[in-house]
Design brief:
By secondary structure, the protein is mainly beta. The chain has no helices and 24 strands. A hairpin with a 6-residue loop joins strand 2 and strand 3. It is globular and about 65 Å long.
Length: about 280
């Protein structure tokens, strides 16, 4: 996919103590990397009017305006941080749905107390992410109603070779329509609210064949450097369209399922692009 590049000239006014206002122009550019199964890098570059790298902290917020009138964000690995020595900041976004009939996406970039909007096009399938739900003790508020907390799972790829047979997923949970957190041990969701949940321990298990047999389930290892990422090995994958992987998620001792009930289904990743998933927010 072609990369999207948007550059915006933004005048910012920085006031130094004891001196007149110093008018400083900043160029804020955003590029969206290739979208693979709903996952893409967001890259920000900010320079001053003379082309030198800007310094300071930046905040990025992907936002979708849906045709229904609902506005929501999406899971992001890191929503804020300091610009590097070249005035750059990068993060990874895990999109919930594509641009098009359902709505349009843009990214708000906040720097030096000013926010600029950058329209983006998200090309993906609803089958690119899976969703599980919390039970009666794991809910959030949405439109002034208590609803099951959604957990979103993304395919980060198979690695099949003579020495490796792995599958990796990224998992995030919703706190509000605008806030999401990567899932790992001892993360507190909706802290200080009625819907607070301490994840305590997170167990991610995967199976690719005869999943009715407990012996075929493999415990996935968490990536300590990238919260929310889990990889399981020895999955007996063939690296073709016949592969499929079931993912079982247990948070704070409760298994998350497709309908929020213990008898519900696990997340299942298929590698046949012709298969689609129904719309589910």
């Amino acid at each position: 996919m072609s990369r999207l590049l948007i550059t915006l000239l933004l005048p910012l006014f920085i006031t130094a103590c004891g001196s007149a206002d110093d008018d400083t122009d900043y160029n804020v550019s955003l590029s969206l990397g290739d979208i693979t199964k709903g996952v893409a890098d967001i890259n920000i570059t900010i320079t001053s009017g003379d082309g030198t790298a800007a310094e300071g902290d930046v905040i990025i917020t992907p936002i979708m305006e849906m045709t229904s009138g609902m506005v929501h964000s999406t899971p992001v690995a890191q929503t804020s941080g300091a610009l590097n020595s070249e005035g750059q900041f990068s993060s990874t976004a895990y999109f919930l749905m594509p641009s098009g009939q359902m709505g349009s996406w843009y990214v708000d970039v906040t720097f030096a107390n000013k926010t600029t909007r950058h329209d983006i096009m998200v090309d993906m399938s609803m089958a690119d992410r899976q969703q599980l739900k919390g039970g009666i003790s794991d809910q959030i508020s949405q439109m002034e109603m208590a609803v099951a907390r959604p957990y979103y799972l993304y395919d980060l790829g198979r690695h099949v070779s003579s020495t490796m047979n792995t599958f990796t997923v990224y998992i995030a949970a919703r706190e509000t329509l605008m806030d999401y957190k990567s899932i790992s041990d001892s993360v507190v969701l909706n802290a200080g609210t009625t819907y607070e949940l301490n994840t305590a321990s997170v167990v991610v298990e995967m199976c690719s064949d005869n999943c009715n047999s407990e012996g075929n389930w493999k415990t996935a290892m968490a990536n300590s450097e990238r919260p929310g990422e889990y990889t399981a090995d020895q999955l007996n994958l063939n690296n073709d369209n016949n592969d499929s992987v079931e993912v079982r998620l247990t948070v704070a001792g409760e298994r998350k399922t497709s309908d929020g009930k213990q008898e519900g289904n696990n997340a299942t990743f298929s590698f046949d692009d012709s298969k689609a998933m129904p719309m589910n927010m």
